[in-house]
Amino acid sequence: MSTRLEALPYRHVLTLPSEPSAVRLSRQTAERALTEWGISLRHPAVDPALLILGELVTNSVRHAAVLSPQVTVIYAAGADCLAFAVHDRHPYQPPLYSAVTGTGSGGLATVMELTLGLGGTAVVRADADGRGKSIWITLPL
């Protein structure tokens, strides 16, 4: 996919406490945003996207909350692309593609299997100060 994230016309940012309820709220917000942006919840990429989103927020809540009292989700979309990022202030950057090679397991392996199966991309971007990161998922629509 060659879509530049900065060029996507639709954006929404949600910041929540790093608590289990963040998973449900981030998915509900995604559904509302997609509907407002004219993306059908029946589109074949939507259910996997919501599952990926839920897994990433769950990972932030479970593993980063000790250093990151908040998790931020950035939603973006365009005519042919859906993107979202989950950001926390924990410095650990998971090796996304090790899940594909068989050395990963659990939720991150599911994230990567779904992302790549849909023809999407995944990338970890460190914060400028090195004390946090965002995991960006981009999926074609």
TrEMBL record:
InterPro entries in alphabetical order: Anti-sigma-factor_SerPK, HATPase_C_sf, HATPase_dom
Top-level taxon of the source organism: Bacteria
Pfam families for this protein: HATPase_c
Segments forming domain Histidine kinase/HSP90-like ATPase: 51-141
SUPFAM superfamilies, alphabetized: ATPase domain of HSP90 chaperone/DNA topoisomerase II/histidine kinase (SSF55874)
Keywords from the UniProt entry: ATP-binding, Kinase, Nucleotide-binding, Serine/threonine-protein kinase, Transferase
GO molecular function term, any single one: ATP binding
Entry keyword annotation includes Nucleotide-binding: yes
Name of the protein in question: ATP-binding protein
Native species: Streptomyces lutosisoli
Taxonomy of the source species: Bacteria, Bacillati, Actinomycetota, Actinomycetes, Kitasatosporales
